[in-house]
Design brief:
Elements lengths: L1 H9 L4 H25 L4 H25 L7 H29 L1 H8 L7 E3 L3 E3 L1
Antiparallel strand pairs: 1-2
Helix pairs in contact: 2-3, 3-4, 4-5
Length: 130
């Protein structure tokens, strides 16, 4: 298994192995970790494990597919697979940028969700409630 991972990373594996088999294995692992993270109630370790697997798996898949793109019998599959990689990187960048902005600025979340943000109200003995 380790040799296959190395050959995929070096661009020596068949494209369909990397595109379909590794892609499905990575997605299944990420979905399983995502499920465990939400079952754990937001545990920091689970969140870090999920993020590491998601980012690491995506980078491995992108690089491997890019390098193995022309290990096919029909050359256009290489062009198509590289297009898919570029598309996924663009989408991942947009989502990351949007989520980063939404996390840093709660008014972004309110404006995208259709809710207006409400001013904070201080109640005697209870602190600030939004």
């Amino acid at each position: 298994m380790l040799e296959w991972i190395k050959s995929a990373w070096r661009g020596e594996a068949k494209l369909w192995h990397v595109f379909w088999l590794a892609g499905l294995a990575i997605k299944f692992t990420v979905f399983a970790l995502d499920y465990l993270m939400f079952r754990s109630g937001g545990d920091l370790f689970a969140a870090l494990l999920f993020m590491t697997a998601s980012i690491g798996g995506s980078i491995f898949w992108w690089v491997s597919v890019w390098r193995c793109a022309y290990n096919v019998s029909w050359r256009p599959w290489g062009h198509i697979s590289r297009g898919v990689v570029i598309f996924q990187i663009v989408i991942a960048s947009i989502v990351t940028f949007w989520l980063g902005g939404a996390i840093m600025n709660s008014s972004t979340v309110a404006s995208f969700s259709g809710y207006e943000s409400t001013p904070a109200t201080t109640y005697q003995g209870y602190g600030t409630i939004r």
